[in-house]
Amino acid sequence: MSKEDLQLKPVGKPCEVTGEVVDAWCWASQTMGPGKGEKHKACALACIMGGVTPGIVDDQGNLYIAAKSQGYKGCNELLTPLVAKRVTAQGWLTTKGGCNVLKIRRVTLAK
Q1: Number of folded domains in the chain?
Q2: Pairing assessment for the beta strands 99-109 and 86-96 based on DSSP bridges
């Protein structure tokens, strides 16, 4: 495989994740209660605007770190308007050391 092929091919396996948009720190640490839901929305927005990575928590409690949506661009702009909402994200998933990292291709409100 050429260097050019590696740059163009998405890394990871295609996936679809449905769950709630959260800030990764509050959800994982439980510092501010359960770290999700409408009651946590203002805190999650403040955390994401302050630099905390957004993520999606599925119904089984798995956190998917939203690493990027485009080349060299994070997901804050994409996910901030959707904090505390249920979404379906399509993209590519990589997992290493127990961490799920999601490169989002498309995100929509879940039905």
Answers
A1: 1
A2: antiparallel
